[in-house]
Amino acid sequence: MNTLTFKNGVHPPYNKELTENKPVTKLLPKEKAVFLMQQHTGAICQPIVKKGDRVLVGQVIADAVASMSAPIHSSISGEVVDIREIPYAEGAHIPAIIIKNDHQYEEYNPIHNLLDYKELSREHIIDIIHKAGIVGMGGAAFPTYIKLNPSNYKKIDSIILNGCECEPYITCDYKLMLNEPIKIVKGLNIILHLFPNAKGYIGIEDNKKEAISAIEKAINDIGASDKIEIKILETKYPQGSEKQLIYAILGREVPIGKLPADIGCIVQNVATSYAIYEAVAYRTPLISRIVTVTGDAIANPQDFWVKLGTPFQDLIDAAGGFIKKPVKIISGGPMMGITMPNTNIPITKATTAILCLTEDAAPIFEEENCIRCGRCVRVCPMNLLPLYLDKFGRRNDIERFEKINGTSCIECGCCAYVCPSYIRIVNSIRKAKRNITANNNIKG
Amino acid sequence: MNSNTYLESSSPHIHQGISTKSIMRDVIIALLPALVASIIVFKIRALIIVVLSVVSCVLGELLWQKTFKQKVTIDDLSAVVTGILLAFSLPPSVPYYIPVIGGIFAIIIVKQIFGGIGKNFLNPALASRAFLMATWPAVMTKWTLDGISTATPLELLNNASPNLPSLWEVFIGYTGGSIGETSALALIIGGIYLLYRNVITWEIPVSYIGSVFLLSFLFCNTGTPFIFALYEIFAGGLLLGAIYMATDYTTSPVTKKGKFIMGIGCGVLTFLFRTIGQTAEGVCYSILIMNLFVPMIERHTIPRTFGEVK
Lengths: 444, 310
Ligand code: SF4
Ligand code: SF4
What we know:
The structure holds 2 protein chains of 2 kinds. Chain A is α/β, with parallel strands linked by helices. Chain A has helices spanning 122-131, 144-147, 172-179, 181-194, 209-221, 242-250, 270-282, 312-318, 375-379, 386-395, 398-403, 414-418, 425-443; strands at 25-27, 32-36, 46-47, 54-55, 60-63, 72-73, 78-87, 93-101, 158-163, 199-205, 228-233, 265-269, 288-294, 302-307, 328-331, 338-340, 353-357. The radius of gyration of chain A is 21 Å and the shape is globular. By secondary structure, chain B is mainly alpha-helical. In chain B, helix 3 (78-88) crosses helix 4 and helix 13 (256-275) runs antiparallel to helix 14. The radius of gyration of chain B is 21 Å and the shape is globular.
């Protein structure tokens, strides 16, 4: 079969063999679970419980009135012992609800009857997805109900499930595709139900042969092959980036400043599709997910099915702790993941992996002069000129930065990955983009 | 409570592992066949000139950086590459002070004054060669060594000389010319290595060599056009220039379209120098002239951003 792909990109070592062939272990939090009040793109949540309250599994503990938000549910039962700010990445402090685990796992709504979504209206299904707190689980954490509710929903012709998992090391989506292919495909069926004129696609990279057969079988088993098609993609980074994936499968480019919905398509992660199925069919909110714990510092790398709110340290312990000294604890993959200051950080809805790398795997280099080798230009999937974005970004020359479309950068990291002068291109681009957003906010 | 704190830094957290040094090492490897060919043709003298040039470049960089308390970057090997390329573009008969002065000029005046690697706007080896030509024209155009002519085949071709070597000789390399340009074969082997290692891309060499070939073929004035055009590309330092000098990172465009413009521009200029100017020096000046246009070419060849609607 011919594999589909996008232009440029890189082939980093995938290192998935560390976890690929191991089973997924179910893991419960030790003494507490911690819920960050910001787990999605959009408005921060406000706690609706207070210190001393007893909460149950699946109970809403925080919500926001803003239009772009997703409620947060407790994943354990126990007592709210504290509500305070905890240190997070990049020097930020984020408010969190800390719940002491009573190990009872008493459920807030213990009835889990299978419900038929076909009876439900579009608005009702979207409301269920909203109330279940579902956000994009591939890392972006955009509230799913908003993405599923574009004004032109009748014009949407393609729903793409993203099963690429192009980041090295991470295998959580792969494991989900192996373990729950039926529910993933059924989740897509529910989404298709919301878009009367759409066809479904599931995009998977060709290095995940077993996932491809599992999903293929699931499509046939539930008799959905007339409206859902599997698309095999070249194993190349960043194949799973939304814009690159749409281009690879449909040959369409999302115009600058537009959304995928504007060109008739919507992309959802496979894990999000699974969560949608759980929410709509069983009214189960998003309170657990698969997380890959890996890296050369980890004794026994593997995937865990964990409750949200479980501290990183619990997972690291369950994976045998460190065999070597890590220099970085990364939430996510090595190309786009965010470094965390400590291991008390909890799992959120969008945590795909805890990647613990030693200095060998994540070496720190001193920056050198740009030698104008053009490598960054050749790998950039957005066809930008990263060397100039870096230059303008550093000088804070926002005008020229914007003129060469710096704001289109998807921060995939390909440019810095290949730069022989170790220039931290993504860092300067990110700063420039932040300045632009800040300026725009001031301007109103 | 675990209070360990870990390093925080911007993504990506892994690196491909290719450094400036490893790139320059590849360029040196690619130049070795041509070096061997030049030693076979011009004997130990060629090696001495290369060594003098390289040592002058490296010491020049070291002294400059020590004097101005800058970070010493000689271990990136770029000065070694400049030294080899400068020596390669010299006639084998030059006195030994020429590569020494040339090396120092290339590194100090052309490269370091402008801020070092990545900041110069002229190719150091070529600019230095042009300087040597202007200052010591006699020694730089003396094409005899131990009484034997080492004239470049192009001159012989232009003068319709009976001593014109066969095309095969020009290709393999038992002929005259500058130190590094004797063997077209050796230069091509090195070029293939550089392409294979992704050190250079094909656009500049192919469009440069291609346009010289095409123009020579179309406007041939002696003999069979095809043979004439082959002489034109195998001789006169064209391969050395097209593969190793016009592709110099700092002084060539980073955009794909820009690379074509660079290559074709060099090709057209080289052809004009050779036909109208009747000079075998075309390659050197053509590349230097195009170097000056690189910022402009780049500004006008910004690629279309993904999703950009023009
Ligand atoms: S890869 Fe690095 S050295 Fe090469 S052009 Fe880009 S920024 Fe400059
Ligand atoms: S400039 Fe942005 S989009 Fe392009 S390679 Fe770098 S990080 Fe990726």
